[in-house]
Amino acid sequence: GLAAPALAQAMPEIRWRCASSFPKSLDTIFGAGEHVAKRVLALTDGKFQIRVFGAGELVPALEVANAVTGGTVDCGHTASYYFVGKDPTFTFDATWPFGFNFRQINAWLEHGGGRQILREFFEPMNIVSMPAGNTGAQMGGWFRREIRTPEDLRGLKFRVGGFAGNVLAKLGVVPQQIAGGDIYPALERGTIDAAEWVGPYDDEKLGFNRVAPYYYYPGWWEGGLNLSFYSNKQRYDALPTLYKEALESACRDATIETMAKYDAVNPPALRRLVGAGAQLRPFPRPVMEACYHAANELYAETSAANPLFKRIYDHTKAFREATLPWFRVAENTFDSFNYLMQSQEQQRRG
Amino acid sequence: GLAAPALAQAMPEIRWRCASSFPKSLDTIFGAGEHVAKRVLALTDGKFQIRVFGAGELVPALEVANAVTGGTVDCGHTASYYFVGKDPTFTFDATWPFGFNFRQINAWLEHGGGRQILREFFEPMNIVSMPAGNTGAQMGGWFRREIRTPEDLRGLKFRVGGFAGNVLAKLGVVPQQIAGGDIYPALERGTIDAAEWVGPYDDEKLGFNRVAPYYYYPGWWEGGLNLSFYSNKQRYDALPTLYKEALESACRDATIETMAKYDAVNPPALRRLVGAGAQLRPFPRPVMEACYHAANELYAETSAANPLFKRIYDHTKAFREATLPWFRVAENTFDSFNYLMQSQEQQRRG
Q1: Partner-chain contact B107 A329, CB within 8 Å
Q2: ipTM of this predicted structure
Q3: Cα A226 to chain center, whole Å?
Q4: CB contact under 8 A, A334 and B219
């Protein structure tokens, strides 16, 4: 084994500052970054300390990528689609309209070549990005008025995350990119007509149900939002190997942890919201189909203009086409039968 | 920080022997145990070495729990339902008929109180059990003849994992508990009429399609099989804190890793199997319903006889009833719409 002095040298004290894109009030999504920090601490005997700051404390929520690139902060915890304005390719590190669910994006990232291909994208930006948390399929958001047809989207000022805004713009939506903590006041004042965030538990905390009654699903633009832990590449490269391994494990740990937490806290939150008067509505099929076709148009246009976007999009598309038929077999029939039995039992109980 | 001698003491060399219940030929499920070992090694700078032995190398596949309890081995990697013959309560550390899917069991274990309640069960057996891998929803297995009605199950000698055997026995099945590596010869010789293992990728390796043409789904008894890493409690308690943390993270890592791997390798394997002539069949609704009712009967009977089983079953049931309605909303409508669009596109392409 290593001699003692070598070991001491191998475990220096390191302190990093982490800029989160999420408000501290959200123990789920902000908590994912804190979970990374907690596990890194445990895995390095307290030597590698990451302090996570809430959105806006060090840099604005939507400036996290720039801050990590430039080294203003050592690291960040974010949703990569916040930066599609810089380059739409960011979306593939997060989620995209009619893309993957939680299982599918993890399979693509970890065993479908996703992380390798994204490394090429992040390298010139001086960022090392690791998957670190996931929300699962999200809700479609809170609307002041009902959406019955695709025409009802026209002129709608809608706070919506990432690349989905570009899709919805094709249908006449005026998309707004607003950080989590700033959405409620905009919706309350009527600056926007509708807003989506994540799902029942977070949305309830942010209070959207108090100012917009219609709660639509699904969030077809976020079938399984992968959260990302960004490290500044020079700082990352300077870490001892053990700390790099600790960070990798901590991030994977955050993915299981965050998904499990969302899946435990969302069901009772949805029940509470509906009990308090939220009007739960599926997007009508014609609305879903119009959005689906608009998304495919946008993918084609963006691919024509951006070769790396095209390469990664085609890569995800091939994986998705090969993968969906399997998910329809055992996974979907197991779930569907359980839903059916539960409905029948509820009907019998009246 | 710690002085160098304290650190050297804090990172002693430790070697453990791990008995897997799975054959080495299965890089997915046996690989989950190896992944734990690999991550532990990386997280302890090579100091904590776990060597994973294939089923039967140290102890028989179905003797892993006893071996860990008695300290014959330091640790094991297994599916807890192999031991339902000792106590049916083991099933809640693995999967059970019409139970949870992958997301739901993780939510219950990590944020629904599952791991706490299971600790009480394992403690008297001298076992520390950690979730370490998952298969997702499994297939229903390979049958020599078609299953058209519940009556077709009568007299069927079926290799089936865990508690599901007791359910199927109510419908006249003669269940067989046979370790993975021994199934093929039994099916080939006609000692059994049908066999289920996991899903397309593993099943193809084990060669079942060569001797039984009908491939049924879903495996309603395994909606998301949680694999377990068992540590002998005295050996676990003697580990330095850092190594305990490394083991915990490595096991969680194995859950993401194994699920991602299955989800990447199963789709092409299913395509190959169908291409080679496998007859894919859903279990008919009346068969599913008969099994569902038989399962509920068995839960009631077992609960009446076994207070801890009852306590844990009721706990899972309450969590399931509260959770399913949420999964039907965003998650299920997102997936279903994507399946529908894919079907329409395939039809258009002809």
Answers
A1: no
A2: 0.95
A3: 4
A4: yes
